[in-house]
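Dear colleague,

Thank you for sharing your sequence with our group. We've completed the structure prediction you requested, and as agreed, I am returning the results in plain text so they can be pasted directly into your records. Please verify that the sequence below matches your submission; if there's any discrepancy, let me know and we will rerun it promptly.
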Amino acid sequence: MSGRHAGGRQGGARQDGGQQSDGRPGGSRQSSGRQSNGRQSNGGQASEWPRDPQAGRPRLLVRPLLAIAIVFVAVVAVTVLIVNAGHGSSGDPAASRQPAGTRPASSRPPASDPAATRSHPAGTPRPSVSTPAGQAADPLGTQAAEYLGTRQGTVMAAVYDLRTGQTWTLGSGPPQDEASIVKLDILETLLSQQPAGGGLTSSDQALAQQMIEDSDNDAATDLWDAAGGAAGIRTYNSAAGLAQTTPSPCVVCTGFPWPGWGLTTTVPADQLSLLREVVEPSRLLSAADRSYVLGLMENVTESQRWGVSGGVPATATVALKNGWLPLNDADTDWQVNSIGWVSGAGRDYLAAVVTTGDPTEQYGIDTVSGLSAMVWNQLG
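Please find the predicted structure tokens below.
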């Protein structure tokens, strides 16, 4: 039932591609129409207008009217040319008013559609309807549910995203046995009981290191007693907001060969509350206490660095505590749990997974690690 956790550390607006109008000035053109060269009469010479042979007098009305009509048509044509030149080739009056070298104003979407007016930088994918901007997609969604559908046993999980404040849960059922993840609860309870500004004694520090880093059961029993046993744990849990965690009433339990504190029952959501006490500012634990706990959880023995660390690269920080416990003499019914904090590569979250009914210890470890890898990938 002892167990170590995985503890890898980590150590101007886009230009519109469309062409704009050439911005030629729209000033008026000079008309190229010719002026009449009216010839002067030379003394007694006849006028240039031919005479009407029938009337015996010059055709003074027909040709002047024709000339006036031609001049009128020319004036209209020149006017049309001037107007078109002023408006530019686009036919858009606004285009001629756009300063040269600037991007033409695009049409605005209807004011009645708020989403249409929201800015999306070029190259940035729009968030889906189910995932508002600034929020993460559900890491315990369809893919995780389908995966657990292929696994034996009963699995319950919860994830809390420290960036967005979102919480997701998966699975349901009664509270499950904690096994060695209860050791985090023991340590937090003991630290909360110390005088302000104080800390654990050197002997208790040695026990705490063995309990968390090596998952030593004897050390855990000593510190369980030092924290006040079930009553002390219950008091701390109430202050921390754990609503469905019940400390075991016995350390030596009839018919059970392991320390009874491992039969404390819990749900993943309560384990997230415990983790938040050490990862976020707390009224129950000092900053020094929280740093101390995380330091131990980040340094569990190598063989116990499985669980919520599944799929997490070595460059990320992982602080965890695992638990495993055979529930029958034949070792065919295992409780396998993992809780912890994972941070790195743009992710920062807490995770808790409890499983029961696993046919072997390794089977349960594989289930927890597989689910944890999905969580890491989904939150990326």
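Summary note from our side: DSSP finds ten helices and seven strands in the chain.

Kind regards,
the structure core
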